[in-house]
UniProtKB/TrEMBL annotation:
Keyword list, A-Z: Membrane, Transmembrane, Transmembrane helix
GO molecular function, one term: DNA binding
Protein name in the entry: XRE family transcriptional regulator
Domain annotation HTH cro/C1-type: ranges: 9-64
Region (Disordered): 70-102
Record's compositionally biased regions (Pro residues): 78-88
Segment forming the signal sequence: none
Ranges annotated as spanning the membrane: 484-503, 515-544, 577-602, 622-645, 666-695, 715-738
NACHT domain ranges (all copies): 190-284
Length: 792
């Protein structure tokens, strides 16, 4: 195989008139790799490498398939997709159409492999999402669409990208859910807007579009990715930057550096290897639709955009249509659709007329009495897939409810009453299959508590104006002062416990002093304040004052593996050392004055009243602590830089897996860093104290830093500093403090927070979008939040 591939590659290169060096420069493949492939030495080439070479050589489709078949007989190139139907030229002598889209630029092999891996990860996740939503059980609802009014779309000539003097033929874009990818390919500009009212099936349509597009995707080509555009603020973040940030959030491995210095995510976006599927234009914050549409019009990238009809129409009225975009509108489900679907979701029951289902009388009423109040209301409700799905869950999946109750005009006099009933009964239905446990947690959840917990989460999302349930932002509303107090209090408590359990007994054994428990308790609290107050100051300045949200880490820890060494690692280590030394020195100075203040307030500790001695003591302690802490922090951060490696491309991207990966990374990193910091403080203290005393000259006291005392100070300081760093400056630490401790203590969430979220996802209350959860639908989130506020 490899020898035949080498011959074909060499012939194609010579026909193109390129040298091996020129082909390497054009394709991004190393010249040694090209030379090895042409001579037939080494292993068979990867598909991504072959694609880069074929793109650079501009071979025909037949030659491309031949190269791929010669490289790997198991992976022949699939036929090229059919081109979009050409526009009709009027007059006949019109010039040919401009090809759209143009060929993607060549990229290094690592980037092409990242795109292929991203496609596999997304396909697997979305197939799982369809299973949980029961999209194919028993068959997909017939979501259909038609072309939207012309006022919402751009000129047809712009959509078809025809040159001046050419008139394009109308496009036939009508279809059903299984044809969405084909409809998109029929749009020459590759820019399509899908409109529909709430619950009309837009999100499910995007799932099917991405899966069908991935099924027809060729290696190295663009990957469709769903982005929930509702979280985008176009006045603060450019679209390209936001897309890169979302890719890195949901797929941490794409934060790794690509050849050239940019991240893999940035290269994928910049080279057109990401096809943005922007879901939820209507969910963008009020007042931002205009700048969002203006920004989208400033770029020409292919995309698919979904929105509710009214919000998009208002934005178009204020600004302009989306440039070169065709627009389709989802249509309502019909009584025939309901008759074909709902009975097949329910169990058979025995009736006077023979076999049937509980839905048969309802379907009959909808057909026979379509104009009556009850039937008209229910028909209007069941025109969207969202409400049909809720009705199926509440009545088809339950043995105790009769869907004929929906025709009771006394209980449900209006269409809104039926919708509120279905939304209100959804959570009790999906959680009512198993009995409640005594504590309201576990497999048999207490339905009342679950509704309150989910309502709290929904209310918090409403308050923040987003639909993304990110575990690192789940702490609920917390004031600045409360954040500082909680972080400081936990650090003080942890430090005091470390002091009580480790430092005080060991110090007494080493020094030979008896244990006085009142002194031990007070000493622990004082030490906690000495450590906690500097952390409180740094936390206030670096996090709280800037309203900074701590993001999950996107690295992993390598202890023995050096295969993933990154370019520029030495510079990174030097930078980290300098930053750590500066921060540690400042912390040492703060520590000196904080320690002095705390001990001045301690009734059993005495401080000299001689001002000269006091000043020299402060200067000596400040120099000593600044040098020791600066050296310790510098060495520690430099080691952290050496141990960090980019996250793997295969890293799982579910919210739970991202949380577990952050926990594992931080704990694996903390253990060696604690030892390094403790040993550095221990062994650097004595020579630093001697040097400081030599610099200050003759002192009325000695700067003692004996090894036993230094060891206890080092270990205690290392443990306390590491735990303080986890709590104050990592997303996982904030999760522990504000979500896993504070919210259960206040009754807002259960102790098993992760279990609650995962179980809600499996039951269909939540859905997964990359590394975050979302509620099944915005209507459900709004309903739960409203009920929570009313109950509160």
């Amino acid at each position: 195989m490899a020898n035949r591939f080498g011959v074909l590659l060499r012939d194609a290169r010579r026909r193109a008139g390129l040298t091996q060096d020129e082909l390497a420069a054009r394709s991004g493949v190393g010249v040694r790799t090209i030379r090895r492939l042409e001579t037939g030495s080494g292993t068979d080439p990867r598909i991504g490498t072959v694609t880069l070479l074929a793109d650079a050589l501009d071979v025909t489709p037949e030659e491309r398939r031949g190269l791929l078949a010669a490289a790997d007989g198991k992976h022949p190139q699939p036929p090229e997709p059919e081109p979009a139907p050409p526009a009709t030229a009027r007059p006949a002598e019109a010039a040919p159409l401009n090809p759209v889209p143009s060929a993607l630029p060549a990229v290094p092999t690592e980037v092409a492999d990242a795109a292929d891996n991203l496609a596999r990860v997304i396909a697997a996740r979305l197939r799982r999402e369809e299973e949980l939503r029961r999209v194919h059980d028993p068959f997909p609802l017939p979501v259909r669409w038609r072309q939207a009014p012309e006022r919402l779309a751009d000129h047809l000539d712009n959509i078809c990208r025809v040159p001046a003097g050419v008139t394009a033929e109308p496009l036939d874009l009508a279809g059903e859910v299984g044809d969405i990818a084909g409809a998109y390919r029929r749009v020459p500009s590759r820019r399509l807007v899908v409109l529909g009212r709430a619950g009309s099936g837009k999100t499910v349509l995007t799932l099917r579009f991405v899966l069908d597009t991935l099924a027809a995707r060729t290696p190295g080509s663009a990957v469709p990715v769903i982005f929930n555009i509702g979280s985008w603020d176009p006045t603060k973040t450019p679209l390209r930057t936001w897309l890169v940030e979302m890719l890195q959030r949901d797929h941490p491995g794409l934060a790794a550096a690509a050849p050239g210095g940019a991240t893999l995510a940035a290269v994928l976006v910049d080279t057109g290897r990401i096809l943005p599927v922007l879901d939820g234009f209507d969910e963008i914050a009020e007042g931002l639709h205009r700048p969002a549409l203006e920004t989208l019009n400033s770029v020409s990238m292919p995309l698919l955009l979904t929105s509710r009809f009214d919000e998009y129409e208002r934005a178009v009225t204020m600004v302009d249509v989306l440039t070169s975009a065709a627009v389709v509108e989802l249509t309502d489900l019909t009584p025939d659709d309901l008759a074909a679907y709902l009975p097949r979701t329910a169990r058979r029951v025995t009736t006077a007329d023979g076999g049937g289902t509980a839905w048969d009388p309802v379907i009959g009423a909808l057909r026979d009495d379509a104009g009556s109040g009850a039937s008209a209301n229910l028909t209007a409700v069941l025109t969207t897939p969202l409400m049909v799905g809720l009705a199926r869950t509440v009545y088809s999946d339950s043995r105790d409810r009769d869907p004929s109750d929906l025709l009771d005009t006394t209980r449900f006099p209006t269409q809104e009453a039926i919708e509120e009933h279905l939304l209100d009964m959804f959570v009790p239905t999906v959680y009512g299959a198993q009995p409640a446990s005594p504590h309201g947690e576990g497999p048999g959840w207490d339905v009342g508590r679950v509704r309150r917990w989910l309502g709290f989460l929904a209310d918090d999302l409403d308050r923040r104006g987003t639909g993304d349930l990110e575990w690192w932002r789940m702490g609920g509303p917390v004031s600045r002062s409360s954040r500082v107090l909680l972080v400081t209090g936990l650090i003080v408590l942890v430090t005091a416990v470390v002091q009580w359990l480790f430092f005080t007994p060991l110090a007494r054994v080493v020094i030979g002093m008896p244990l006085y428990w009142d002194v031990v308790l007070a000493d622990g609290l004082l030490t906690g304040l000495v450590i906690g107050l500097p952390f409180a100051l740094l936390y206030t300045l670096m996090v709280v004052r800037k309203d900074k949200v701590l993001e999950p880490t996107r690295v992993r820890v390598r202890l023995l593996d050096r295969s993933s060494r990154q370019p520029g690692l030495r510079r990174k280590i030097a930078t980290r050392f300098a930053a750590g030394a500066l921060g540690g020195a400042l912390g040492g100075v703060v520590y000196t004055f904080t320690s002095l203040l705390v001990r001045a307030l301690a009734p059993y500790l005495q401080i000299t009243s001689d001002p000269d001695v006091l000043v020299l003591a402060i200067v000596g302690d400040a120099l000593s602590y600044a040098t020791v802490f600066g050296l310790g922090c510098g060495v520690t951060l430099a080691l952290a830089a050496a141990l960090e490696a980019p996250a793997n491309l295969t890293t799982a991207t579910s919210p739970g897996d991202l949380l577990a990966a952050n926990r594992t990374t931080l704990l694996r990193l903390i253990v060696p860093l604690v030892l390094v910091l403790a040993l550095t403080i221990t062994f650097a203290g004595f020579p630093v104290a001697v040097a400081v005393q030599a610099v200050l000259g003759s002192l009325p006291f000695d700067l003692n830093w004996e090894l036993p005392a230094g060891l206890t100070v080092g270990l205690t300081g290392g443990l306390s500093a590491a735990l303080g760093y986890l709590v104050a400056f990592t997303a996982w630490g904030h999760w522990l403090l504000f979500t896993r401790l504070r919210l259960p203590l206040t009754g807002k969430l259960p102790w098993a927070v992760g279990r609650l979220l995962d179980d809600a996802y499996r039951r269909g209350v939540l859905r997964q979008s990359g590394a975050v959860y979302q509620f099944r639908h915005a209507r459900l989130q709004e309903h739960l939040a409203k009920a929570y506020r009313a109950g509160r």
